[in-house]
Amino acid sequence: MPKQVKKKVSSMSFSMNRLYKRISTTKPSTLIIAVIVMGFAVFLFGGGIYNIVMRPLPSYYGGSGVGFIFLYPWLSEQFIYDSCIAISLYSLGIIGLIVMYQSTQYAYKPRQAYMMFLAGVILLLIAYIFLEVTIRLKLS
């Protein structure tokens, strides 16, 4: 610690000094850090920055014959609903990967490990298939 910071900390009251030391020596949980990083990655992959910068429409009413359009018809732009779909499907895929990983914890219970692994694979496949379907809908 630099001398100036040490000098300022030593001149603080006892309770403030104790609070400062507690905050400066706190080590966050790896689980919390992993959840925050994964959440940020899903936000980025889902187009969250695009939504903040461009402020797109939530959806569009195309008239009496078309009705509401929730998926933007071209790949160059998106509605907010596009991001909601993408974020939820990416989250579903990550949950599937986590369940598959957690199935390795039950090596002595093969039936439970198999069921958890199967549930994770199903979640991952559902996310992948629906992401492909939404991309195909945008292309056609």
Q: Estimate nothing, just give the exact number of structural domains.
A: 1
Structural class comes to mainly alpha
Question: What is the first-to-last residue Cα distance?
Answer: 61 Å
Overall residue-averaged pLDDT value: 88
User: Nearest-angstrom radius of gyration?
Assistant: 24 Å
Major sheet: 2 strands, antiparallel
Number of helices: 6
SSE sequence, one letter per element: HHHHEEHH
Question: Which percent band covers the strand fraction?
Answer: under 5%
> Unreliable runs, pLDDT <50, ≥5 residues?
none
Number of strands: 2
Q: Helical residue percent? A: 55-70%
Shape: flat
Strand order of the largest sheet: 1-2
Structure in words:
With 140 residues, the protein is mainly α. The chain has one domain (13-139). The protein has helices at 3-11, 14-25, 30-45, 48-54, 80-102, 110-139, and strands at 60-61, 68-69. It has a two-stranded antiparallel ribbon. Helix 3 runs antiparallel to helix 5 and helix 5 packs antiparallel against helix 6 (110-139). The longest helix has 30 residues, at 110-139. The radius of gyration is 24 Å and the shape is flat. 9% of the residues are buried. The model has no long low-confidence stretch (mean pLDDT 88).
